Amino acid sequence: MSAGGPAVRRLADWDREQLLSLADEFGSPLYVTDLQRVAENCQRLRDAFPEAHISYAVKAHTGQAVLETVREAGLDAECASAGELVRAFDAGFEGNRVRYTAVNPPSADLDIVVSYWEDHPNLTITVGAEDTIDRLRERGFDGRLCLRANPGVGAGHHEKVRTGAHAKFGIPIDRVPDIAERVRDEVDLVGVHAHAGSGISGDDLSAHRELVRRMGDLARSIPGLEFVDVGGGFGVPYHEDEPPLDLGAVADATREALGETEADLAIEPGRYVVADAGVLLSEVNTVKDVPETTVVGTDAGMTTLLRPAMYDAYHAVSNLSRPDAGVVSTIIAGPVCETSDVLADDRPLARPERGDLLAFGNAGAYGYEMASTYNSRPRPAEVVLDDDGPRVARRAETIEDITTLERTASEHIPN
Ligand SMILES: Cc1ncc(COP(=O)(O)O)c(C=O)c1O
Ligand SMILES: N[C@@H](CCCC[NH3+])C(=O)O
After folding, report:
1. Binding of substrate: at which residues (predicted)?
2. ipTM of the predicted structure?
């Protein structure tokens, strides 16, 4: 197999015995991340886009081990907050391999990012509003700046993840050349950027191509740019029978839509790098037959994996403990006191018994990252797999971790 590995890794491709033993050893719920698969996904992107600058969108999975793997695999880091930027530097990225994309950035973020820029003057800051340029200038910034355009065309697996045409993101594309002209003397204008949205596949590919075409036109209208970044968003197959993206074809279409530009192509995928490198394991604690279905209660819920509740996202599920049991229709629901705390609805599953272990596929992207402590429910541990075997990359949170932020009235110091 090439260094890029197969085009897709499905839930059924994971080693069932290994997952069962990991849950035995490290408990449940448990995120498992395979670092070799992360490296393969990076390599496949590099093979498809050999000429492009590729930055990993850190927000998909910020774990240190993942970031180190991505860095070693040759991708740069695209950070959406000061916290992500700090994590990228902690994982050893050099300044010239770090980009920070500001979205209505809080002052504290700008303070931190500018202080990192003072020590690493070759990092790049992408801005989506003129206010952000002014606020950076007030802090003395005159470094590498990229303008984020709102190209008026978006794409993605759900309305809530389509960014390209949402007013929140970027500067209306027709205003970008004037702003570029204005800021040229004040900063080092190095690029233009746009991002269509997340989870692009199938029909959305034509919208993505249109975005790239508009960005090619924009890049040609601004001389002297180093790069034109057309964002991330490459989708992965969540359904078992969904074909993977033909990344080579996407790359060819991207080049064609972009056309000749003085600026180099840049992309910033997140999901594609980590989605199929991760699974979520969860123990069944309740099995309840009701008239229409079988309710399967699990120790993971919307606080562990938010995507089904937030986007009605589909994650493949299998019963690792009892794969050969008769299949029944189930609703798989977590322990959170919310009706939307459902991980899978109307889902055929080998009928589980209490104590069985379920696995949820494609949990590596926006899984742990979107976990929360709602209902005072601690976040689970994450184990990573590498050549040395499994190791805990993030320990399980405890209730004490959550309550430690509390202050009593006597600890309150009035202003
Ligand atoms: C600006 C930007 N870049 C990159 C990404 C990564 O997207 P994805 O994980 O779908 O590749 C996102 C998320 O949608 C984003 O907002
Ligand atoms: N969190 C989204 C995608 C990322 C959006 C970031 N702009 C998802 O899980 O699909």
Report:
1. 271, 307, 311, 338, 366
2. 0.99
